[in-house]
């Protein structure tokens, strides 16, 4: 298994409940494709470097997980269409 990190920016205008639901959805997607979540870093609400969809702030999360090499492609294709997700990036963590 490889180690990956998913950087996730969620809409800054969401309520706490909606934000938690979006995060749970992403976690469910990772687990559905064989990912094992090892750590979640919540960086909170931060100002975006540039405006995205007329928003200036977003909630930043960094999700560390172990998965097979085919999982990131499947995860990205599902996360891409989630409405509350503004930006995402999956990178392989080198040991």
Task: List the keywords.
95 residues, alpha+beta, Alpha-Beta Plaits, 4-stranded antiparallel beta sheet, 2 helices
Please describe what this structure looks like.
With 95 residues, the chain is α+β, with helices and mostly antiparallel strands. It has one domain: 2-Layer Sandwich (Alpha-Beta Plaits). The protein is 27% helix and 51% strand. The protein has two helices and four strands, in the order βαββαβ. It has a four-stranded antiparallel β-sheet with strand order 2-3-1-4, with helices on one face. A hairpin with a 2-residue loop joins β2 (36-52) and β3 (55-67). It is globular, with a radius of gyration of 13 Å. It starts with a strand and ends with a strand.
- Sheet of most strands: 4 strands, antiparallel
Number of extended strands: 4
Shape: globular
Percentage beta strand: over 45%
CATH class: Alpha Beta
- Percent helix range: 25-40%
Distance, first to last CA? 12 Å
Question: How many distinct folded domains?
Answer: 1
Strand order of the largest sheet: 2-3-1-4
Count up the helices.
2
| CATH fold group | Alpha-Beta Plaits
CATH architecture: 2-Layer Sandwich
Write down the Rg: 13 Å
Give the integer mean of the pLDDT values: 94
Structural class: alpha+beta
Strand/helix succession: EHEEHE
Topology summary:
Blueprint (H helix, E strand, L loop, with lengths): L1 E10 L4 H17 L3 E17 L2 E13 L3 H9 L5 E8 L3
Antiparallel strand pairs: 1-3, 1-4, 2-3
Structure at a glance:
By secondary structure, the chain is of the alpha+beta class. Helices cover 27% and strands 51% of the residues. Strand 2 and strand 3 (55-67) form a beta hairpin.
């Amino acid at each position: 298994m490889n180690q990956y990190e998913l950087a996730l920016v969620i809409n800054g205008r969401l309520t706490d409940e909606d934000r938690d639901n979006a995060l749970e959805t992403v976690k469910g997607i990772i687990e559905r494709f064989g990912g094992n979540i090892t750590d979640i870093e919540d960086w909170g609400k931060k100002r975006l470097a540039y405006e995205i969809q007329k928003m200036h702030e977003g909630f930043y999360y960094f999700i560390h997980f172990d998965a097979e090499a085919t999982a990131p492609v499947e995860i990205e294709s599902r996360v891409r269409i989630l409405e509350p997700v503004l930006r995402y990036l999956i990178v392989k963590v080198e040991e």
